[in-house]
Amino acid sequence: MADARIRTYDERTHASNAGTTRASTPERTDATDERESDAGHSCPECGGRLVTDDEHGETICEECGLVVEEDEIDRGPEWRAFDSTEKDEKSRVGAPTTKLMHDQGLSTNIGWENKDAYGKTLSNRQRQRMQRLRTWNERFRTRDSKERNLKQALGEIERMGSALGLSESVRETASVIYRRALEDDLLPGRSIEGVASAATYAAARQAGTPRSIDEVVAVSLVDEMEFKRTYRYIVRELGLELEPADPESYVGRFVSDLGLSEEIERRARDLLRAGKSENVHVGKSPVGLAAAAVYAATLGTDEKVTQSDVREVTDISEVTIRNRYQELLEVDDRVQAA
Prior knowledge:
By secondary structure, the protein is mainly alpha-helical. 59% of the residues lie in helices and 3% in strands. Among the domains are: 97-108 and 120-243, Cyclin A, domain 1 (Orthogonal Bundle), CATH 1.10.472; 248-337, Cyclin-like (Cyclin A, domain 1, Orthogonal Bundle), CATH 1.10.472.10. The model is unreliable at 1-39 (pLDDT under 50).
């Protein structure tokens, strides 16, 4: 009986102590968890904010300068590149996705060189096998008519963009415009080349590096009438917001092609600004005004060019150049006199 009473007393004592312990221990709250979380992002010495120095691989305190962590893992490449070409050569990953390819560059492309990784020529059996793989790979890349259409159109945009000296970003914009036209089913009744030409012309205008209609038609596979008709249709149906071309956007290219100085370019831009202040540009071709401004800017200087030289570069007739440059000079005289 004594042993039983002792055990019962011990059990009651243990239970009482356990309850006291539980009662004395405060419950964890959300505020406690938040303080512990903030402690990992603050300095253990002064409580200041921690910042990461990627160059030295350290985590330091912004207030007292304490180095909390060092020798952190650098997850970037182990090589350095100083231009885009060097970066592409050293990178060991695939090319970035681009709208200039119908599959955005995500599919596999099998080269046409019948050589292995060591530069050795393949045997006849291996060449036949690789040819079959290329054929099936090409079929898988263009599985339906829409993809074949897109592939042909994007190749046309790339060709025209290169011939017109347009940047890659402008070509990408043109490819996006063509994709929208294809998705909205605007191509039936119109040629692929015509819509691609219209998309390229619209993209160049949106980017502020416009090309004249004559320049686009010269590198396009469609005539001027079809190009204009298709361009108006695409702009109207897609709701493209295109401001009238600014004559100043042509000046830099014309000056460069004629081999003139920056002073001539500045003078030509001043003439165009004076003409716009008097609304001379209203109802007139911006390309013709730009060509006339460049010619007028050379008058009275040591950099002489003839109207024939300007015509060859700008594809604007000498009659137009002669009429427009006289108007610009008259307006400039009035502005300076005022």
